[in-house]
Amino acid sequence: MADIALDRSAEVAAPPRATALERFQHHWTALALSFPALFLMVLLLIGPVVTVLIMSFTDYQLGASTVAFIGLQNYRDLFADRVFWTSLGNTLKYVAIVVPASVALGLGIALLIESGGGLRTFYRAVFFIPVMATLIAMAISWEYMLHPQFGLINLLLKAVGLAPHAWLTDPALALPTLAAIGIWQLFGFNMVLFLAGLVSIPRHLYDAAALDGAQSAWSRFWLVTWPMLGPVTMFVVIISAIRSFQVFDTVHVLTKGGPNKASEVLLYTMYSEGFEFFRSGLAAAVAVIFLVFVLTLTVIKARLIEKKVHYA
Amino acid sequence: MKLRTCLLSAALALAALPALAGTEIVVQYPYGELFNEPHKQIAAEFAKKHPDIKVTFRAPYDSYEEGTQKVLREAITKQMPDITFQGLNRVRIFVDRGIAQPLDGFIDSDKGMETEGFHQAMYDIGMQNGKVYALPFAISLPIAYYNIDLVKKAGGDPNKLPTAWEEAIELAKKIKALGPDINGVTYAWDITGNWLWQAPVFAQGGSMLNANETRVAFDGPEGQYAIKTLARLVTEAKMPNLNQPDMRAAFAAGKTGIHFTSTSDLAKVTEMVNKKFELKTSLFPGVVPEKGRLPAGGNVGIILTADPKKREAAWEVMKFWHGAEGAAIVAKTTGYMPPNRKANEVYLKDFYAENPNNYTAVKQLPILTKWYAFPGENGLKITDVIKDHLNSIVTGARAGEPDKVVVDMTADVQKLLPRK
Question: A6, A41, A150, B25: least CB-packed within 10 angstroms?
């Protein structure tokens, strides 16, 4: 990628009758100028990724003095491990719950704030707080609220005559509960993105729609707002998906993947393989698989954004 | 050969005294809230006797897991403390990776070990591949906690508490029958490192693997007995599915008749119960005479420094920390039991007379054995696999088929053992 860019800059810069020496010098200057950026990119981005990739083909263990290449054995072990499939399934389920809910909620609240009168800044700030807060600290507050015996949520349920639940220790509820916290954490961010999108919709489109007979709020939304939000929505969906894939802190603090792997997710599997079981090679294999998912999402995003989704 | 070792150690002993002057020994230990006090007090005593060696502490590890991680990472960057205190079942990892330093040279050349209360069972706990790499510092053992008020109400005899599982389950059933919000029994099955899975198997005289560690051995009669007992606690004694803090809270609130867990909980539980009811500890049931054993929990001291002069000083520190005086401080400031014989028999005599609940563990001291760590690179993963299988019984999902669970568990663990 970098090479192509360099070649092009050389072509543009070089005058038509440049001698070979001049071309060479230009080439060098370009290379020297881009060197710091390239160096840092290799050091901080490409280097670690390649290291992880190589590590996933070894039997390396944390603190071990010897390393040997074992080919695809880590991947074979991983695919034969029930825990990995549970973990992958849970992660996909989590994404499937959190993405639509946080996008819909973000959009809904953005529309309400935008159409409302006063207190706009106040609402914006309030809904954005979960995004700013440290998730670990918030997870601890959630832990108290969800406590089976004296948690606020169960107390409220009891007060209105409903049965309390063991939110984090019931295998059927653990993952949905974590997903709810995930939504709470994410929708404020989506809301801000949607607000930005809403502001950039030209007013005259609404006027035109009104002239054409679109009177109801719904038809204004369906005919103008929603299509104009296309690019923003696409961006929000992809970003939410990537962030949901990365769920880790709440799992680590609240459930540790339990009960009985009911809330085990990819990043937590990676953590426990690498830092609890010390099977670093295997943890690297999980990291590679995780990377593939996130990379796929990023490529989709890049493609679609380049196309500039536009319906107007 | 023998003569040479003698001469060498004599020379070392002579050389040691002046050479150690000004040596600094860095120590790191886990669970600050439990162990800050004993380490601080022992260090104060040590400073009086050995002004030549300076002991400094690093911030305590949050947990055994974190402690192991940290040392493994520091081994790569060469920033390890000189002495580390680690979970008893973690010795194997450090030996396998060549990080722990053997202590045999010191133990053999030190003539005063026996009179200072050290004994063979203490060495056995930290032994790996025939060499001693660690000394036990604070020991915990699985015991039973009884709510004597509930035992009496259910018609049990507080002076003849159960020693067999059969009796324990019968008593738990009677206690359970006292009311819908009363638990007959709780069993802290999820203590780290499969501790309370190893306990009933070892108590029957069984083991986790065969002697040369190539095949699973807990599918034998001992393991089957253990897993069926766990299932009976769920099916017959109606054990609720709680995590450890909730079990402890329920017991302390007077809602549970029998609670099986570690002696290390004793101080905390006693404080929480606060004389609301009569609390009594008793022996872990189902220990077969002669061959029955119980796994020791708690933590051990390991010397990490490879520098000969520092090792010399580190050994002086270890000897004091694990010796009679250090051990007595451990017993008085924590719920843990020191394994040192002299400490228990001399320094702590009055203490145990006043605190009979603390003495239960000391009674079980002769049947102490190693908290087993599985071999090979998947050792800790195996622990997790076993935990999940046990969980399937405790949640009730597979409580009706313990024999099938043990078969599946055996197959899963066998797959993860080193292929020799």
Answer: A150
Q: Is residue B347 over pLDDT 90?
A: no
Q: Which residue has the tokens 């695919």?
A: A79
**ipTM score:** 0.73
Whole-angstrom distance, CA of residue B174 vs CA of residue B165:
14
Q: Which CATH number fits domain B142-294+374-416: 2.40.10.10, 3.40.50.10090, 3.40.30.10, 3.40.190.10?
A: 3.40.190.10
Handedness of CA A12, A18, A19, A21 (dihedral sign): negative
Rg value, chain B, Cα:
22
Q: Are strands B256-262 and B142-147 parallel, antiparallel or unpaired?
A: antiparallel
Interface test with B, best of A51, A59, A61, A253 (most B CBs within 10 A): A61
Paired with A69 in beta bridges are A58
Chain B contact probe: residue of A60, A62, A82, A282 with most B CBs at under 10 A: A62
8 Å CB contact of B99 and A63: yes
Domain positions in chain B are: 2-140+296-369, 142-294+374-416
Determine the Cα–Cα distance for residues A85 and A82; give it in Å rounded to an integer. Answer: 5
Q: Which residue has the higher pLDDT, B59 or A13?
A: B59
Please give the CATH architecture assigned to the domain spanning B2-140+296-369.
3-Layer(aba) Sandwich (3.40)
A236-279 pLDDT per residue, tens: 998 899 999 999 988 988 888 878 888 999 999 999 998 888 88
Structure token pair of residue B70: 């940290």
pTM listed for this prediction = 0.81
Residue segments in chain A with a per-residue pLDDT below the cut of 70: 1-18, 306-312
Nearest to B169 by CA among B154, B180, B181, B179: B154
Query: For chain B, what percent of residues have pLDDT higher than 70?
Result: 95
